Fold this protein.
Amino acid sequence: MPRPKKKEINASKPLFLKKYKFVLIGVGFFVLFLILIYNLYYANKIVPGVYFAGKSMMGMDQQQAGIFVSNTIDNFKNSPLVVNVDNKSFSITDSELGFSFDKQKTLNRLMEIGRSGEPASIFVQRLILPFRPVNISPSYAVDYDLFSQNLSSKLSSFEKAAKDASIDISGAKPVIVDEITGKVIDESLLADNLKADINNLSHAPIKAEMIEIKPIIAKEQAQKALVKVNELNARNINLVYGYDKWNLTGESLLSILQFQPTDYEDGSFMSLNLGSDIYIKTASIDSASPPELDLSLNQQKLDAFIADIATSVNKPTVNATLKFENGKITQFQPAQDGQKLDVLQTKNLLLSKVSIENIDEAKNINIDLPVHITKAEIANPEVNSLGIKDLIGRGVSYYAGSIPNRIFNIGLGASLISGTLVPPGETFSFDKLVGPVSAAQGFKQAYVISSGRTVLDDGGGICQVSTTVFRAALNAGFPILERTAHAYRVGYYEQRGFGAGLDATIWSPSVDLKFKNDTEKHILIQAVMDPANAKIEVDIYGTLDGRRVEISDPIITSQVPPPPPLYQDDPSLPKGTVKQVDFAAWGAKSAFTQKVYKGDQLVIDKAFYSNFKPWQAVFLVGTG
């Protein structure tokens, strides 16, 4: 029986392909046909899988998509975003946040999806998009300055800043102020949530989270600084040059201190970062051992204090001139040596004396200010013939806080004595020169103490001039023939550290100030007003004869506290205005001495006594 023939198989072609090749070719053509139809249909339309503001854009042409984008953005802009903070809320608009939308750019991005790149890439994009859709956010620009400003403004009412423990030096005794824990909004999270709403053009309410902010310095950490403050508060530092003295003690000393954490640099604890996509407030200190409150001198305030001294000390070099008219010197320019404060050396002296790290100096510290002198030439023959060539005595006093009429009277009184020549052996009389202190003399009404009250009277302030003349005569070493102390301590005469008792009142014609020119040459009295520093200066020029003068510091005893404050009606002030015209002063007894030597011989040894009654603070209450 013959064998059946074997079927020949072509090993080069799979059986499946041979059997279904026409079917496969048909399917391929069908897929190509579908792709062609897809591309033709979506040639100018948005492809499937593209969303905007959470809504499908499939099949929209450019015009339809443009209208939809514009309306959606406009609708979003018409309603503000709402932020919930605890149980409260606030609203803010996209324009307040600095957002400006670009509709055309947004539309272009929508139309480009599934159309950009190589053909193979475009094919893959279109194939995947229906299964992995994309949501296109609107295109916008952000003004981050406006974003920061308006958002911070909205949040400010909800936040409470943390406060470090500090030292309060405003009262009679420095005390520690407790720290306060703060609460701020997590602005980074809030910014992300705001951005998410804007990217989706959604008005879903946004919840803002609060963060507790711990202060850097606690009460316990401030204790060490308080110990230093109390030690400094007991110091009395005097800076002296010639007849002038500046005090750096108590309140004035504490005012140039600064308190800050150890190794602190401004801005190192809180930073604000604004970038193209983020707005963050971060604390950059995270230490297991928090810093202590450190105490140091504020360099800027110290420089300002020294600069103020330099303003008073610095003077140009001036040669002498003199002019007579009707027996009185009407124009006089004394020879003035140029002087300039060495600011750097002064600062170094202060820093060495006010050592915060090692406070072990004596309670009372005197610093002689370093001043560079440039000698003047004395060329005027009349100056030389009269012997008016040397500054032999100077007195200063200060009138800060005086009312305008009082300042006017001080200036008028100064002009009446300025230019006065006193021949050798003659007596200077304040009353004789100034005459009756009255409106007829040109004096204005200002406040004076009369019968235990502060009242308006002609010439209030004239005693500022007589007090300054008294100080000049004392420093010149002249015999004081008549001098009467005030009944009460007057605050003006103790400004800038002058002790109680260095004053002289006048009340024409019964109470006068007199001293004798016991030199062999004429002396010239010159009074100078310095409004910028609220200062009057009386200079006595003549010829130095070698005398040496020692004025002791006043010794204060038998102090009595002041009575309660007194409030007085004043029709010259607007109604409701309260103005302090006198400051509380303790009653006390004061005594100091003037000793004058010629060579080794003591020629004047005189004690000056004052018995001050306690004086209350006086406030004027406007009724006008």
